[in-house]
Amino acid sequence: MKADLKTRHGGRILADALAGHGVRTAFGVPGESFLPVLDGLHDLKDRLKFVICRQEGGASYMAEAWAKLTGEPGVLFVTRGPGATNGSVGVHTAFQDSTPMLVFVGQVGNDFVEREAFQEVDYRRMYGPLTKWATQIDRAERIPEYVSHAFHVATSGRPGPVLLALPEDMLFSDAAVADAPRYRTPRPAPAPADMRELEKLLNAAKNPLVIIGGGGWTRRASEGLQAWAASAGIPVGASFRCQDYFDNRHPNYAGDVGIGLNPKLAQRVKDADLLLVIGARLGEMTTSGYTLLDVPVPKQKLVHVHAGPEELGRVYQATLPINSNYEEFVVSLSQLKIQKEWKSQTQSAHSDYLAWNKPIPMPGKLQYGEVIAWLSQNLPEDAIVTNGAGNFASWLHRHFQYKGWRTQLAPTSGSMGYSVPAAVAAKIAAPQRTVVAIAGDGEFLMNGQEFATAMQYGAAIVVLVVNNGMYGTIRMHQEREYPARVSGTELTNPDFAAYARAFGGHGETVERTAEFAPAFQRALASGNPAIIELRIDPEAITPSATLTGLRAAAQAKR
Ligand SMILES: Cc1ncc(C[n+]2csc(CCOP(=O)(O)OP(=O)(O)O)c2C)c(N)n1
Ligand SMILES: [Mg+2]
Hints:
This protein is of the alpha/beta class and 558 residues long. Helices cover 39% and strands 18% of the residues. α15 (392-399) links the parallel β15 and β16 (408-409).
């Protein structure tokens, strides 16, 4: 033991390690399995806020959304078995969305391990496929080493979650060990020869399209790319739920290559002679089920830029694979000499997008598309809009214009229950920004309990609950596959405005389009977390289809 080092228990060493790596906020639900950590956090109260949540699913989504918004790894604490299982949804989201996250789970002491002691689970096996690395810290003096390693793994290459299990005896034990300095993430840059090849490919292209997305982007990368796209006159699309990487009002914006894809944009992707894909993995949602590009060799020339080398050549063989971070890549891109002009393609791509963006009349007194368009026109430019999975999100993705970096927080993993916790985390991270959560009636109640967390932390979010009385997405698929055989998709709902009031928040119910704007203003003015229930006609199953229409089309096919 070195004389100049203070002896600390494992919990305090861990809390100090997190603070040393720059963690300012952690999320979780307490458990008796990690009392020394809570004790360590007590000492660091002024530097490291521990946001106490109501369910680990909500807490894990908050940690994920925090990381998406701030670019810093999200930190989550959950207890053994039950906490670890509840918390898995946000970890899966972080994995699919390439979001850096550190998950700490309580574990039985090494004196009881492998007996299936109370709430014991082998986290290495349970979390193996859901994380970049799942491990356990068995000795308190190795906490600084493991935590440093975890930050490096979570943030480098393709970012993602890392799980560290904390045996109880380890946390209670004392050690005299030095803290490690703050982690530094490696930043691979493109090779000059690759950039020369890209220059040639771009200058030979008649019909190129850029697609951007994925984890590990920064505001600088996003703004640098917009400036380059403007000077090169090239059209740019965003991958699924990465619409805020490029100002949607920018004349080069071609729309999002996601679910409910504009058929004209789908055609544009297919017809491109060169696709420059930066950061997007080209997953199932971005490729319309691997149909826009042929597997494994696309017809289009493909330049695939990714920070994780394992993603290059994973599904698609690129003409030119480039392993690079995005800021570094965009800097190199800006130095290329581009002689080609793609003005007319860029103009028609943007006007196709603008036409697609316009709301379409739908059945019922409440025009939800108009509500989204109103939000798009009236929210401050830096407002953050969150959503989870469900058909209600298609109106948002289609009719809202995202105007700047990290104004959208949404799970590319297509997970329900994200909207409310993501909004709470966003409002805690950026209290000066307006934060709106858009939820379905099904989606909302998956983590509606975190409205209590919003109240506890004074996070004045506005939640719109789009109520159609059903798990509409599944009903849509049901009507297509098994028309007129409704099964397992109906919902009986509470009074959502009364729900908000029961927590001490502001509640409103809106049934007509004209009622929305004043209700929204009242919700904001209340200064409290608020819920506005939007009662939409269940007939309006997508922005452009009705349930009856879907049913009739499916029956006609039979
Ligand atoms: C956690 C989770 N559970 C189940 C699903 C499957 N799922 C996708 S959308 C959906 C229905 C969403 O219902 P709602 O929030 O009411 O939105 P709507 O589709 O009605 O607009 C379901 C059950 C999922 N994606 N995530
Ligand atoms: Mg619904």
